[in-house]
Every structure is written in C-alpha cells, then in structure tokens.
Q: What sequence folds into this?
C-alpha cells in the first residue's frame, strides 16, 4: 500500500516496521526489574506485531481475512499506547522519549481504524 503524499513515498509496511524498531530501541533504554520486565515484554510484543499483522493483511486470502488482520493491527496499536503510558509511570525519566512513540501509535491506530471501517 504505497502512494505519493507530498512528494514522499508513503509505505505503511515500512512505517509499521519502523514503529516496531522504535519500540525495541525505546525498550532497550529501560532498566530491567520486576515491574519493568513485564512491561517491556508486552510493549515489544504488541509494538512489533503491528507490522507483522499488516504484512499478513496485505497478503490476505479474502476481504474478511484482510479486515480481521487490520482489526488486529488496531488492537495492537491501542495496546502499545497503553503500555507506553504504563512504562512512563514505571520510568518517569522516559516521558520525553515516549512522546513521539505514543504519537506514532496513535496515528497508526487512527489509520487502521479508518481502513477497518472502509472494508465492507
């Protein structure tokens, strides 16, 4: 799914992959401990699965399959927003670093919501 947006190539597969990479980089900054470890695990799982599920949606066998996979992308981006927020509670010094990541999760969620609603 690529198109030209303001002279730049817009590729949702690349954007979701970059989001997953940024989640990993963000989580690598977090010190390990009994509170942070489960948050790291959950955030890495949902943040990296967005791109994988989008790839599966892109190769869907039917419209229903496509819609289902896009629905998973919606859920995973919403979950990522939640765990980014919880990570900031656990590690307040990451608040500034988290803002762009949370914003990207929000934007991706809005994109997937829009796609989901348009699929009949």
A:
């Amino acid at each position: 799914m690529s198109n030209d947006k303001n002279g730049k190539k817009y590729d949702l597969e690349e954007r979701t992959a970059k989001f997953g990479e940024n989640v990993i980089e963000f989580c690598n900054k977090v010190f390990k401990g009994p509170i942070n470890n489960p948050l790291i695990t959950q955030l890495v799982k949902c943040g990296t699965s967005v791109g994988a599920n989008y790839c599966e949606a892109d190769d869907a066998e039917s419209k229903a399959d496509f819609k289902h996979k896009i629905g998973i992308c919606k859920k995973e981006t919403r979950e990522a927003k939640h765990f980014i927020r919880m990570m900031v509670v656990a590690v307040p010094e990451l608040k500034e670093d988290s803002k762009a990541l949370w914003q990207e999760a929000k934007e991706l969620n809005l994109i997937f919501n829009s796609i989901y609603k348009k699929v009949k």
Q: What stands out?
A: Residues 63-90 form the longest helix (28 residues).
